[in-house]
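This week, think about what follows.
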Amino acid sequence: MNPYDHAHALAKAIREWEPFLRAREAVRALDQDPSAKDMLIDYLRRRMRMEAKQLRGDRLTEEEVSTMQKLAEVVQLNVNVNKYLQADRELQTLLMDVHAILAKTLADVQVVSAAEMFEEMGRNE
């Protein structure tokens, strides 16, 4: 079996995996509750901005951290949002694990690793 066939088999397995099914059901529920969906989208955007700020090497203020913690608490009170976030965490973990497995395999044929490149870029900036 070639790698593409395995990739399609993995995609099929993921579509049948319980966390994926829970995420899909949560998305359907959120589609029926626009205010909860908007709240989730706002939370995800804010979280992404904070993560981007950290990746740039900027420090988060205590106020930013406190605001996000409070927002996370409020957002998770919504049952459908909470279900989505839990399932999404499992899916993201799976994605990272699969990526790590593939990256380890491909490392044997790389001249320089992505980690080494990022490290070098950090030194030169």
In short: The chain has a mean pLDDT of 92.
